[in-house]
Amino acid sequence: MFIDGLTESEKHQLAIHLREHDHTPFMVIKHAHAAVQCKKRGLEVHPIDGKYLDLLDNTIAHLYDKRRTGPALVYTQPQTNSHRDLA
Predict the structure, then answer these.
(1) What pLDDT is attached to residue 69?
(2) Measured CA distances, 80 to 6, 19, 55, 77 (Å)
(3) Quick one: the chain helix, strand, coil %, rounded to 5?
(4) Which residues share a beta bridge with 76?
(5) Whether residue 85 has pLDDT greater than 60
(6) Contacts of 17 (CB under 8 A, 6+ apart)
(7) Single pTM value for the model
(8) Coil vs helix vs strand at 28
(9) What are the CA-CA distances from residue 70 to residues 13, 17, 23, 78, 87 (Å)?
(10) Cα separation of 87 and 84, whole Å?
């Protein structure tokens, strides 16, 4: 898959979740990938591609609490401020 930051197990579970919600995982990822490629190139994102990018972002956030970082399909855990000194 074109998705970085997920384990193979998470990718498998993502595919199952998408299928259970009547989506074809390949098509979701294909359209999401097209959306990020357009963003990288400074082109307008087609509404369908944008819809699937939003779906993928929201699904990964819901399942794994990971967010997309930058203009690619790279997902990471959000940074927390729990390590700040409170002194």
Answers:
(1) 86
(2) 19, 32, 24, 9
(3) 55, 5, 40
(4) 67
(5) no
(6) 59, 63
(7) 0.86
(8) helix
(9) 23, 24, 25, 13, 33
(10) 9
Which pLDDT tens digit goes with each residue over 15-70? Answer: 999 999 999 999 999 999 999 999 999 999 999 999 999 999 999 999 999 999 88
Backbone angles phi, psi at 10, to 5 degrees: -65, -40
31: which 2 tokens?
A: 């359209």
**What own/partner pairs with CB < 8 Å and gap ≥ 24 does 57-60 have?**
57/32, 59/14, 59/17, 59/18, 60/6, 60/14
- Look up residue 33 and give its amino acid: H
Six-digit token string for 65: 């609490």
Decide if pLDDT at 73 tops 80: yes
Place of tokens 């729990």: 82
